[in-house]
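Much of what follows relies on a compact textual record of a protein's fold. Here is one such record, which you should read through line by line:
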Amino acid sequence: MQDSKVVEIPSVQAFRRRLQEEGPVFWVKEDRAMAIFDPDVAERVEAANYADLTMLDGFSDIVRGRKSEPVSWHQVRGAWLGKMRVLSSVEGFKQLALRMQNLLDAEIGRDQDLVWLAERAMLEPLVSAIIAGLTPRAHRRVVDEVMSKVALVLSDIDEHRCPPLHKPKMWVYQFLVGVEVRRELKGRASGKRPRQEDLTDPMVDMLPELGLDRAADAVTALLTAITSSPGAGAACLLFEWQRQHEWRERMIAELSAIPLDALCESPARLAPNTTRFVKEVLRIWSSPPIVTRSVRTDICEGETQLKTGQVYALSSFFTHHDASTWSDPDVFNPDRWLAESREQCPHGSYVPFGWAPKSCIGANLGLGQLILMAHLFSTRYRLRIADPQRAKMVVASVVRPMDFVGAVVRA
């Protein structure tokens, strides 16, 4: 990218260079890893690779040397998607907004790393959507475990985020969270703990098929899944919020006219200007920039042929910056999302939440949460940036701002 406010780490620069020289599909390591940055090919390869995805064997079955009963991941995802409709309801959004508000209220006036604050503001409220009803101590353990993984992800360019002994502590957190998840599942199944409107609850109903180990693995997989993109997206939203002055004023005018409770009925529909802004943030700063997949089954999609055991890489970031698909792809332009401009976005070229069948189950919830955050910064808070000229965007393991320091203040 030509923007002087954008820094790319060497591995991303290398991918960009080869993409320009060799086209959207090329071998990274001969006969071992392939980069697939063509949206149509990526969609077909993902569909083929995960057509028959099943849950891994449970730990106790592995120890005993036996196979677990096969359960399709599609069945698990279907159960979660049903619960997502509840979490994305009016009441679900209200509770999410309240948890975000409570966290931000506690940070008023404190100068800090706004990337870390954005991570917390998104992730801590989401923990309760995944596993609710924990004791305060157990909830804190889960949050600490999630944030320890966030710190590891961010440490690729910010080494201070992972001091000595960070990884051993993270492993301890993971063990303790595994204990808490199993305790919660068993408690709900036995009737000793109440059922909850969260993503853990469908796993209780599936315990006879999954077994405790795999049910717990499914819940912890969700906790792992929220450790990069949601918080990175929020940090990028705040970055563009502070530098897109005209759009910020448009959103403040729009959102100030809508009470928060009313907005929760349908965030994307009721705040069209803000929705376009958020969608453009997710396009131009999509995270993570590169994801890798192991090839699970031999794949033949035209000239793209992969063997079991090989690896392929996908990139929503490069897909979203493809000049053959997008008009001025490196320009931040929310108006590209106006209805009359949508021909700029052919099917499959906008994938901020990944590719089916492994796309994020919380896409609607995530989009709504970012709109709710924009509402909070339009009505209740303002950002005070310590040094706006120093802040920049970095494209690394995740895309997020750098040297982005400031405080949340009352509006």
Notes: The chain has a mean pLDDT of 92. The CA atoms of residues 96 and 369 lie 7 Å apart. The radius of gyration is 21 Å.
